[in-house]
Amino acid sequence: MASNKRQRLHSPAEDIVMEDSSTISPFMPVFEVFRNELDEHHDRRERIIKASRDITALSKKIIFSLQRVRDLQAALPTAITKDIQPRMKTINELFTSVAPDLQGIDAWRYQRQISGGIQEFIEAISFRHFLQTQRLLKLEEAQAEIPGGIELTEDDYVLGLFDLVGELMRFAVTSMATNGALPRGVSQGDEGEKGGGNGRDILTDLRSLRTHFEALDTTSSYAPGTFSPLKRDVEKKMEVMKTCVEKVENAVYGMIIRGRERPKGWVPDLADEKQGGREAVESY
Q1: To the nearest whole percent, how much of the chain has pLDDT over 70?
Q2: What is the pTM of this model?
């Protein structure tokens, strides 16, 4: 009797431990596969996020360097070229490092994580291209700048061009404050002139961009239930874009109209005169 009572004192947990390993649930290997897939997913996601942040930071530094340029349709100064080349090389290495993680269906799975870096990179290379040629970088040309077979979506391309308007505004205002003239391209026949030419001015380009952006139809740029950077950001970026163009227009008005009443050598006052305070404009 006593021995029987002692046998009943064994807990169910102790009985399970004593069972043979062959009785482990057959579902355990399945969940181990799920666990490994989730670990790989999170590791891949973190790699892409880190690369995107580094690409964004390097692209901003390239833009800072390009803002020191003062002439349109001219080769970049040697000092600026030397400054941006190492950063471009590092950006290419970052893109290449995450390219295997952005192939096939994963290109869309992690599009949200890489989108910010791609947009900033498009802004930088399109700004460089505009300074050299005074024209926009085409989608195909921008795609060729991204190594590793990483796909450039139309959304990221367009949003990068939206941000380009802000850089063109800063370039125009800085040039006006420095040289007392609106940046202007080189027309045929005056390629040898220094400090610009008699070609198209940058305000004409900005107004053309504004017209085309305002005519942009973004309602069909996404499928229901999918991530669309353009759908999410276009309204905010549209307002910033319009504000940037207006700032250049106001600076030009001040230089042309009120400048006639100023002494020779006067440069425009670029302070914002709008009532209600300064409007928010994307900055670094």
Answers
A1: 75
A2: 0.78
